[in-house]
Design brief:
Elements: H1 3-19, H2 27-36, H3 38-58, H4 80-97, H5 99-102, E1 108-112, E2 119-122, E3 128-131, E4 136-140, E5 143-151, E6 153-157, E7 167-170, E8 173-177, E9 181-187, E10 190-197, E11 199-202, E12 209-212, E13 215-220, E14 223-228, E15 241-248, H6 249-260, E16 264-266, E17 274-280, H7 291-295, E18 298-302, E19 305-309
Helix pairs in contact: 1-3, 2-3, 3-4
Amino acid sequence: MAQDDTALDAQALDWIVRTGDPAFDDWPGFMAWMEADPTHATRYHALSAAIDDGVASLRAPQAGAVAQPIAKPARRAPQRIGRWAGGAIAASLAVVAGLSVYERRPQPYAVEAAPGAARTILLAEGSRIMLAGGSLVTIDRRDARIATLDRGEAMFVVAHDAADPFEVRVGETRLVDVGTAFDVKRTSDGMRVAVSEGAVDYDPGPNAIRMTAGQGVVATRGGVMRITVDATAVGSWREGRLAFENAPMTEVADDLSRTLGITIAVAPEIADRRVRATIATAGLARDPTPLAALLDVTMRRSAQGWTMSAR
């Protein structure tokens, strides 16, 4: 490995450790480093993936055991890097050594945001995926222009490339960008898409539906319906607001559970009630009882969490 590559790897490893700290707040500095040179993002994601894979192999569970999520070690003081490097990073460099061969194979990998905690993925080609709490997306390291939303909700801010359009897959459905920022949410019986900038094609082909800013679709087992949305509210969950427009109460409960990191269920008698509301989520994880007045429900606590029922 050339000296320049060694220095770049050291920088990338340092950012991997620092951004893994829950107290990390130098996002402007991180973004500036990522955007300073295209090789920065490429090496950051390659090393991060290699380390995750290497640590996973080191901690492979015994037969019959349940594998626990592997969190990146947090850095709270500069000297901690050395101790961590002596463990997980050092073991993972064996994986990095063979990275050039490894990267030639299809390499899908999953990125998950824990319930109650959002997460941002910076792709080497310039796009960003912002995952809402409790969400899961799958990406291929060889082709970051294809992402699959497996669970939850994500905001996609796409670096447009007419020759290589960005594609989001939700089950059998494909969404293709036409220069775009858009939000996608998987629901219990389908999906919701809302566009804030540019345009998106829903299920490209003879029956494609093109959505532009302020438009979206709701797809359920019963079919696909165009909707009008407030473009300024698309992805408002990133700012601590959940916006609902004619959404069933079950969807509201699911979104609240993912966002707050607590279990909120809905009683059968109001499961299909439609909701039009914007909910500020600050403080609700500690005390969700204000939802009673906001949604005209009764909040009851149990050992499993909370249940919303009719008044």
